[in-house]
Amino acid sequence: MSWFNRDARELPTLLPLPLTLADLEPGQHGVVLGITRENETLKRRLTALGMIRGAEIVLDWVAPMGNPCAYRLRGYRLSLRNEDARNVLLSAAWQPVPRPHTPRLHRP
What we know:
Elements: E1 19-20, E2 29-35, H1 40-48, E3 56-62, E4 69-73, E5 76-80, H2 82-85, E6 88-94
Antiparallel strand pairs: 1-6, 2-3, 2-6, 3-4, 4-5
């Protein structure tokens, strides 16, 4: 049977598709891989705001109707619409592991 006639379930999976900023869940972290070239104006704006390759970003808040969302990036909060967030590619997404609380020692 030719590869063109196979069912999609039979095809080998090569590489996972990159995530987009719109795929993050609240509290998840991601690392910026790049910005698509669909909208050059948006790409320039986001790059000027510090959304460059390797930047860590966190989904901080989602509006009640799901749009827009607020992201933490380089020490500030950035609000983006979902259609703009779909243009930002992420290389990873993870949920941070909470560290156990250790009381601070007070020195006299």
